[in-house]
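Q: What would this complex look like in 3D?
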Amino acid sequence: MAALAAVLPSWPEAAEQTRGAVVRGRVELPRVQVTSERRPVSAELGEGPERDAGEWRRAIVYFETAPKGAFEDREAGRARMDQRNETFVPHLLAITVGTTVDFPNNDRTYHNVFSLSKGQRFDLGRYGVGHSKAVRFDHPGVVRVFCDIHSHMNAFILVFNHRFFNITDPDGSYEIDGVPPGTYTLVAWIEGAIRDTKSVTVGADQRVVEADFPLK
Amino acid sequence: VREVTVSRLLLGLFLCVLLVDSAHAQGWPDSTTSFAGGRVTLGGELTATVSPDDDGKFNYTDYERSALQLIRLGVTINVRPVEGIAFITELRAEGSSDGGSWNGIPVAAYLRVRPWRRHAFDIQAGRIPPVFGVGGRHIYSSDNVLIGYPLAWQYLTVMRPDAIPANADELIYARSYGWQPGYSVGSDGYANGVPLATAFRYDTGVEARVGEETGAVSVAAAFTAGTVSSPGARSSNGGPQFSTRVAVRPATGLILGGSYANGTFIANTVQDTLPASVANGRYAQQTFGADAEYSKGYWLFRSELVSARWTLPVLGAPPIDNPLWATGASAEGRYRLMPGVTLGARFDHLWFNDQSGTYLTLPWDAPVSRIEAGVSWSAMRHVILRASVQHDTRTRGDVKSATLPAAQVTLWF
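A: Here is my prediction, written as structure tokens for the whole assembly.
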């Protein structure tokens, strides 16, 4: 029994190893708002309904190569992308494969959510205020989401086959926890494009690894 | 030369915006192209259509162009220097895939003012979109599955503002030659007639609207220089047109509209040649419209009725029996078959009231029917491919029926 105790780490140590390290930092975001202006059309008889400007840009930071075993560690959950004020809220959603996303219409008008992205083509048809439809995302990749009625409405859904990703706060800061020791490629992604990549090494004893992405 | 230059400039602008935007977004741009913190926005559409020759001129939009052979490039710019004020300009160049000349025109150029931010009341002044009906505001291919247009908004009748028939025989004789009728009073020679209301040109004037497009009720009214069938930069007769439209949305997805327009139709160049007994008359076009749209899920239905009533001076025997009525009705349905693929079909008919000539009593223009079915496919969001087949029939003319396939590609941003 004493021999076994010598081989196995103590409980707290085991928990720390399971939890892994935190990779955190800040992505310097361009000081530009998401362009959510309406597409100009000369045939309108007046201004469209008043609406707020789009939210600040956010980035997604993710591991290009996930730790071994990460693919078995997936939780198929549920997420939500709202339609409000002729805008998808949030503009950027990151989920794992198998997640079902609800698209409730909480606006004053009809919407028709669709995507022509190769990994996930769907069209939810027109539905009114107070109704919702859902899509299950079964393939990793970038899914562009649009409204067939309001051409200025657009959003991104990034589907990962591991859990090592996170969306930054509005100030660009991010945190990915539970990272086991190893060397990884970290990617900062903004509005449809990979901004930067960075190699990070998480040591066996490290609790926190810092990785910033300055504006280039 | 100037028109060709304008067209080239527009094409250059279109391509520049696409290239700059594509480079910025590292791909085809998905958001609206904007500058100056969203105060300047740009939109554009390039549409090219090919079809066999339309010998019956069923789809002609003027003397030399068919809607099924149209190449159209439009760029719309919205500049909002301050909150509540916007300048909207649309530059459009049109040519034919069959060759021929190009023209480049500012289709729209107007000022929009929203005096109170929280109240849905807008005033637009300049070269403004038509208040009457809906067909004139649905001409862009991104809003249509089919390639052809509703007859009431495109088919050229034998009515002309700059030349009129001296009697009922002359009018009846011109039947079915709407792309080039010629009359003995007014302008010499042949020129195209007008549709009941045109989808291809905007009028000049002032418009006000209360209520928003998505609200329960909206009312718009305008005073413009031309008429719904013959709008223009300036009046050809000094008589303004009043037009109005009321739209209600009684249920989700349902829009019902009613429209009316009344304006002096015949040009001063005709009025000045009239004998004293009829020279002081008001020869107007009154137009009535009703429209409905319902959509739900993967379905959309649209229907529109446009009825025009022209009054012409009575000059000789056999007399023209005023008013001259023309009514167009269309019904359209669409179904989204799968993401990016939409099927659509429209049935359309145009009929005219009878006129009594010396020997015959006939509709004053030849009634026309059109049925069109098509499919549109968006392989990419900003590229739309369409194919359609249209069958037109007419009771008179050198060509009484035609079946016209057409294909179209649209790029938009």
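A: To summarize the key features: DSSP finds five helices and 21 strands in chain B. The two ends of chain B are 28 Å apart (CA to CA).
Q: Very helpful, thank you.
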